[in-house]
Amino acid sequence: MRVLAVDVGCGTTDILLWDDERQGENQTHLIVPSRTCVVAGEISRATAARQSVVFAGPLMGGGPNATSMRRHVAGGLSFYATPEAAGSFNDDLEAVAAAGVTVVTPQEVPSLVDAGAVFVNSGDLDVSALFRALELLGESASVDGCALAVQDHGFAVAGESDRTFRFGKMAATLSASPRLSGFFYQREEIPSYFTRMLAAAGLFEANGALVVGDTGPSALWGASLSAPGSPCLAVNFGNSHTLMGFVDRGTMDGLFEHHTSMLDPGKMESYARRFAAGELGNEEVFADGGHGTLKVSRSYDLAKVPIVVTGPRRGFFASVDLPMVEASIHGDMMITGCYGLLQGYLAKQ
């Protein structure tokens, strides 16, 4: 079996071409810039050249691309976007327009390009380019299926916090069943409110085997695979979000999610200890700017439970006074999310 697992993050897109006939260290894997960073660069170059931008294509993640858009508009330059692409910045298109973006129809795009606007294509992944790159690297054999992870806040109704909406859906999933496989969906199972997952799934051939999930549970499941014992406290220090939960052979107890930039080592240690003791409340985390917490079903002793950490921002939290172990699957921390995603794929077959 050959499965292509793609973990789309804020800073990087992590790719694993898993072949069950190869040993771990010989699996093909790549770490490349995320599409939101690539798009941000394209917008920034247009800003520097004092050119208008027309942003069109499927919904994708925000972050760096939104920052570049705001800088472009602040420079007095025109920024056009089709409705679906504009949704990458905010579910509320009126809010996007208020930020200085002119929302246009797809039919208007060619004339804008003819008038000199730089065309920037949206989308979380360039699937055809990825397969071409793999072929150029010698991976020309077909794959049996694909697995994709994106961070989806969900489509929140006007007036509802996307933090509340996202965490509420994740908490409901975990409350219904502790199995991490509940966070992964075959193409036809993706809930309608997970618009980013739906858009990303649309980038792949409709008749191919595909499983889509969220980057957070993927990272936690993957990190747990390298833990020296079970259960473990799995922690993902991502570029954008930090999550943790107690993982035990494909199940998880409790969930915490916050924005990495709002945390420091001291705060994180306090959160981890109180989370483990079942003393950390959802309202406190949300009031602090995070997403929330789902309390554990029992208390855990962090002196006895392995704490395994992953994520590109883990180094910032190295001074946390807890016995943390860095996740490393076959010698590579950056593909822990891919291996968690692979577990989700296999569980849905």
Task: Give an overview in words.
Helix 1 packs parallel to helix 2. Helix content is 32%, strand content 23%. The chain is globular and about 65 Å long. Strand 2 and strand 3 form a beta hairpin.
Secondary-structure map with pairings?
Elements: E1 2-8, E2 12-19, E3 28-33, H1 35-48, E4 53-56, H2 64-74, E5 79-81, H3 83-86, H4 93-98, E6 102-103, H5 109-114, E7 118-121, H6 127-136, E8 145-150, H7 162-176, E9 184-186, H8 195-201, E10 210-214, H9 215-224, E11 232-237, E12 241-248, E13 251-259, H10 265-276, H11 282-287, E14 292-294, E15 307-310, E16 324-326, H12 336-347
Parallel strand pairs: 1-8, 4-5, 4-7, 5-6, 8-10, 11-15, 15-16
Antiparallel strand pairs: 1-2, 2-3, 9-10, 11-12, 12-13, 13-14
SS-derived structural category:
alpha/beta
The name CATH uses for the topology of the largest domain is: Nucleotidyltransferase, domain 5
Principal-axis shape equals: globular
Mean pLDDT: 96
Number of helical runs? 12
Estimated share of beta-strand residues: 15-25%
CATH superfamily of the largest domain: ATPase, nucleotide binding domain
Radius of gyration: 20 Å
Summary tags:
single chain; 349 residues; alpha/beta; Rossmann fold; Nucleotidyltransferase, domain 5; 3 domains; six-stranded mixed beta sheet; globular
What's the short story on this structure?
The protein has 349 residues and is of the alpha/beta class.
